[in-house]
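Thread title: Can someone regenerate the structure for this chain?

I was given the following input by a collaborator and told the matching structure tokens would be attached. They weren't. Posting the sequence so someone can regenerate them.
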Amino acid sequence: MWNIDAYDWNRNVDGAAVAGRVITLILLRRHGVALFHEHFWECAVGSPTVFATLGHVIDWPDCHELARL
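Best answer:
Regenerated them for you:
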């Protein structure tokens, strides 16, 4: 279901790189489903930047709600 991997699981990638990767790929592709892993610290560091940068132009559905559909 996802087509943008945030790479937040990669120990060689920091939170800023996670945010930059997701923002860049979403802007280039103009659509997509980003995969974040909530149990990795880089997700917690990078995702607020993604939401602040793109939050006003992208829908952010809750994956738990989508699973119930």
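Helices lie at 15-29, 41-54, 63-67.
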